Structures are given as C-alpha cells and as structure tokens.
Amino acid sequence: MGRLTPLEHLLLTWLAVLREWTELPTLAQVLNPRPLRTQLLEALEALGRRSLLERGQQASFSLQSVVMEYLTDVLIERLAEEIVLGNPQQLRRVALAQAQAKDYVRQTQVRLLVYPLLERLRAELGADSLVEEHLLRLLAQFRTEDAATQGYGPANVISLLTDLRGHLRGLDLSRLAIHGAYLQGVEMQDATLSGARLQECVLTETFDGSAWGSAAVARGRPDLAPGLADAYGYCHGPRFQPGRTPARQRKH
C-alpha cells in the first residue's frame, strides 16, 4: 500500500474504523480535512481498480476482513508512535470511537482500537502515570490550535483518558474542539469546559455553571443553549440542569 495517495490511505483507514458498509455521504462527512467530491470519487475509483475496497449497493463501500485487520494494526502502531513522540497527525484525522455510531459499532471500535492502543502505550511508556502525562501534554498542545486543526485529536485523547483513568473528574478540557466524544455515564465532576466547542457528542453527566463556563454547545439549535456563548456545535443527549445529576446517574 506504499503507493497510495494520502487521501486514498485516509479513506482505507476510515473504512477500517467504520467497520461496516458505509455510503458515500457518510464517508465524505467524516473525512478531516474534507476533500472535494471529485477528489473523493477519483480516490474511491482508484482503490476499486486495485481491489482494495468492496463496493455495495447505493454507492456504499467496505473492506475485506484481511485488509480491515491489517489497516487496524497499522493505525494502532502509528497512533502509538505519534502519541509517544508528541506529533499527533493521524490522531487528528481519524476518530477512534464515534459517539454517533450504532452502539455495537462504537463498542467494537473501543475494543479493537481504544483498548489495544492504550495497551501499546503502556508497553512503550510503562506506568499509567506516564501514559496520562503524554495524553495531557497533547491536550495542552491542541488547546493552542484552532478548531479545524485539532480535528478528532481531543476526542481521541479523551477516549483514551476515559479508559485509562475510569473517569474524567477534574480534567481541564477548556478551549478544546471536542468532536464526537462519547461521554455517556462518564464521571466528570469538576471538569472544566470553559471555551470548549462540543460537536456531535453524547453526554448524560451534568456540570455546575463554573464547569460549563462559555462552552459552545447546543442540541441542534443555538436557542436550546441559553446562557452559553457562541453555540457553534451541538451535542445529543438529555438537557442539562446545572448543578444537578439525573437520578439514574447518581452513585449509591
């Protein structure tokens, strides 16, 4: 696969992440940066000629199992190297676990991507504290960048931290562009989201007013987020009541 263009390699990697038949509009939507439609079609056609992807009905695409597993291993190896070196390139372009995916797909993504990547980082760095240190350093780096440059990076780091720590309590998530994070049921007391931009996330946990600060979050429409500054993105989930936790979320 060494002769692939960057877009062709990204398409194959995303199909390995998505792990099911994916229609063209969905595939185009997840790509970061998003290519021109003509570029996307040309890349898919080139991959098809090389028999590196399968084409289904209604312009849908998938991978053979052997190709999917190979690309998954390559992705984990590359992401581990990027995190260790502090040079997150592919980490920005591909989501490890999609909040909006079907439950079984997201659970598979966590099992085959998030968990193995974390284990690889433990093998490379040793103690969990060192893994966390590298991940927090990446969040600090993303915080200095604009939202488009951050891409999926912050959400991927949050997924890894969630599995590593078992919670996100007290975590500084301020000024991050968090795209597609699945945070349902994750404990986030005293987490800071001031100035963050949340898009296509799934959450159930509530925060007090100081945690939200000026986080940009809405559920599809800006008017559903009164008091929040500049609602650029949106999150799916029940409405929040600052300072209260739903009964099903309380710990007994």
Largest sheet: 3 strands, antiparallel
The side-by-side strand order for the widest beta sheet comes to 1-3-2
The structural class is mainly alpha
Instruction: Give the quaternary arrangement of the chains.
Output: single chain
Low-confidence stretches: 207-214, 217-252
Percentage of residues assigned to helices: 40-55%
Structural features, described:
The protein has 252 residues and is mostly helical. The chain folds into 2 domains: 1-63, Arc Repressor Mutant, subunit A; 124-249. It is built from 10 helices and 8 strands. The chain has helices spanning 6-18, 24-30, 37-49, 65-85, 90-93, 103-125, 128-143, 147-150, 153-165, 209-212; strands at residues 22-23, 54-55, 60-62, 177-179, 182-183, 197-199, 201-203, 235-236. A hairpin with a 4-residue loop joins β2 (54-55) and β3 (60-62). α1 crosses α4, α4 (65-85) crosses α6 and α6 crosses α9. Mean pLDDT is 83; it is low at 207-214 and 217-252.
Essential attributes:
252 residues; 2 domains; Arc Repressor Mutant, subunit A; mainly alpha; 8 strands; globular; 3-stranded parallel beta sheet
